[in-house]
Design brief:
80% of the residues lie in helices and 0% in strands. It is mainly α and 215 residues long. The chain folds into two domains: 65 residues, Homeodomain-like (Arc Repressor Mutant, subunit A), CATH 1.10.10.60; 136 residues, Tetracycline Repressor, domain 2, CATH 1.10.357. The mean pLDDT is 80.
Amino acid sequence: MGHHHRRASLERARVSQAERAGAMRARLIDATIECVAELGYGRMSTNDIVRSARVSRGALAHHFPTKADLVSAAAQRLLERRVEDFRDRFTAMAPDRRTPAEALSVLWSFYDDTGGLVLLELMVAARHNRELAEVMAPVPERIAEVSADVFAEFFPELAGRPFLGEALRAVHALFSGLALNALPDGDRSGRGAEVRAFLKIIVSAMPQIVAFDPA
């Protein structure tokens, strides 16, 4: 009886320790995202992150030995949130509103918030930082992959189409460009109007797109 009790106590301690470690990692990742949004990658330092997270430098070094490790985890978390938010928002819609055009509209909204701007900031900063470039290089492809997965989930008629991945890469490239163009003057509403015009074109072309066979 005592042996089983000790084993149960040790197991609870391990779970509690893992939960604390996970909470600390999440705290550091959230602080990193906030610091990139407020300061930009170039101005952000690990001192800014530990101050924002209210942790010691030792805690940061324990969980993320390098700045690249931390930024990589932050980028991954932003992508995970995108997928979670997309599924939540799209599932909450009335079934008759769940169209590919509406899905693209939801995707654009992700480029128009803090998380999207942080990813763009990191992509631009990677041009002049080799370590950051290695971290961010897989991100565009990963964005296209998760977008294709979500589209295939909600629109099974598109899942087998050979053009789906390429089309979504083109959409993300367009959205990235529009979001970057809005940064200097902050004209996000104007870019939104451009996106709505693009979505109207997609809606009118959707029957031809679904029927398209490159073979």
